[in-house]
Write the structure tokens for this entry.
Amino acid sequence: MRTTIDLPEALVMEAMRLSHQRTKTGVIISALEDYVRKQKIQGLKKYRGRVPLNVDLNRLRRRP
């Protein structure tokens, strides 16, 4: 998808240097992937302590 956005040049250059990305597109894609991954992890944290410990995971993984 082609999109035009105005980003601070210094911030993009620093992100390129820190992430070892060679292109601005690569930096943006990497940043978006990171954001999505972190949000998914945050969503999973709400289940912490709610999964019973006596569940047989092997039995659950072999669903018909």
